[in-house]
Amino acid sequence: MNLLVIGSGGREHAMVRKLAGDAPSASVYCAPGNPGTAQYGTNVPIPATDVTALARFAAAEAIDLTVVGPEQPLAAGLVDEFESHGLAIFGPSASAARLESSKAFSKRLMEECGVATAAFRIFENPAAARAFAAGMEPPLVVKASGLAGGKGAVVCGDHREAEKAIGDLMERATLGEAGAEVVIEEFMEGEELSVFFLTDGSEAAALAPARDHKRRFAGDTGPNTGGMGAYSPVRGADAALIERIRREIAEPVLARLAEQGSPYRGFLYAGVMLTAEGPKVVEFNCRLGDPEAQVVLPLMEDGLLDPLLAVGRGARLGGWRPASPSKAALTTVVVQGAYPASVHSGLRIDLPADLETPDLHVYHAGTAHAGGQLVTAGGRVFGVTGIADDLATAAARSRAGAARIQFDGADWRPDIGHSETR
């Protein structure tokens, strides 16, 4: 069997490792991959958004299934391109992926099908956006409608901050075209939860829920990032809550997309706020989270390949559900110190050869090889996942592992999971 994973980050490293473990005799490729994915398969130097070249490669190499990691190829129509050539691929079409690529589309769809979310308004005119924000009680949230790499939501504590966020996104284009349209919404009080479903467009099978920490510094302070760490399980996120989220959030959205002629097949990630009124959607993503994948996938005691194959070939899940994990996992993300501001490529990395164990996984997120040496190639450099019978032990393993990775300016949060492990 020949498998192809699209992407180059820690999430894709986790996916490649999981699939290689599920099918040891398979040939696993990753495009473009990273030094971590190369440990379990073959990297292919094709950009994740080059849909034509990827389809050509999949056809030439008789790829049995392609699994898409990041959101950009989905928005670019990679699934549509593959399906037009009769190639099996796991992920939503570009039309269905608007759940993530357009916050405005997503909010309108939730409104149509009665899914609980924050009250909102959508704007394409900055003056109108400012006028609306000025009449809201802070705090409030200003979001870029387009894809922004997890950095498009700004929580504004007062009207001055809201005015700056609107100006940055809509006039100064700090996030490019992603901020040409903005969503302004009420601030929701509560704790966030990442809930992942594997869906064939009708059935939705929940994977283990997780919680990530997006703030850069300890105590959940500092700027938002793509994610500084994650953990699973999450206190209070029991089977009853996940079933409620499946029934009240995932199923209505899937049904509405099918009605619109855009059936959704792939991973559906619901970012949920657990409010006093119940779970409300913060946003949807059309793929596994990063770094949440680095805790969810290692905890899976079932094979992932069979349901991915079924959905990727257009079949049904047929009642497949994963077993509940028996262990806990926590990921600490090792970053360059200036992240999420300017970062440097080419910094030499000292990665101990004995760091990886069955209870400690090291996922490459922003690394490369240069002159035979492992070097930095992004702000988030590694995800270090500790696995144990309890979360406190998993956290201790993760942090001890993170401390052993050395490069100029290496930094990491020492308190991922702090509310659960203290």
Q: Note the beta-strand portion.
A: 25-35%
**Oligomer kind:** single chain
Structural class, from secondary structure content?
alpha+beta
CATH architecture of the largest domain: 2-Layer Sandwich
Radius of gyration: 20 Å
Number of strands: 23
**Helix tally?**
13
Indicate the low-confidence ranges by residue numbers: none
Mean pLDDT: 96
In CATH terms, the superfamily of the largest domain is: ATP-grasp fold, B domain
How many domain modules? 4
Shape: globular
CATH topology name of the largest domain, in short, is D-amino Acid Aminotransferase, Chain A, domain 1
Question: Which CATH class of the largest domain is shown?
Answer: Alpha Beta
Percent in helix: 25-40%
The N- to C-terminal Cα distance equals 45 Å
Largest sheet: 6 strands, antiparallel
How would you sum up this structure, described in words?
This protein is of the alpha+beta class and 422 residues long. 30% of the residues lie in helices and 27% in strands. The chain folds into 4 domains: 2-93, Rossmann fold; 125-180, 2-Layer Sandwich (Dna Ligase, domain 1); 191-312, ATP-grasp fold, B domain (D-amino Acid Aminotransferase, Chain A, domain 1, 2-Layer Sandwich); 328-421, Phosphoribosylglycinamide synthetase, C-terminal domain (Glycinamide Ribonucleotide Synthetase, Chain A, domain 4, Alpha-Beta Complex). The protein has helices spanning 10-22, 51-60, 71-75, 78-84, 98-101, 103-113, 126-134, 159-171, 239-259, 293-299, 305-312, 391-403, 418-421; strands at residues 2-7, 27-32, 42-43, 65-68, 89-90, 120-123, 140-144, 153-156, 182-186, 191-199, 204-206, 211-212, 215-217, 221-224, 229-232, 266-275, 278-285, 328-336, 360-364, 367-370, 373-376, 380-388, 410-411. Strands 12, 15, 18, 19, 22 and 23 form a 6-stranded antiparallel beta sheet that branches. A 5-stranded parallel beta sheet has the order 3-2-1-4-5. Strands 6-9-7-8 form a 4-stranded antiparallel beta sheet, with helices on both faces. Helix 1 (10-22) links the parallel strand 1 and strand 2 (27-32). Helix 7 packs antiparallel against helix 8. It is globular. The mean pLDDT is 96.
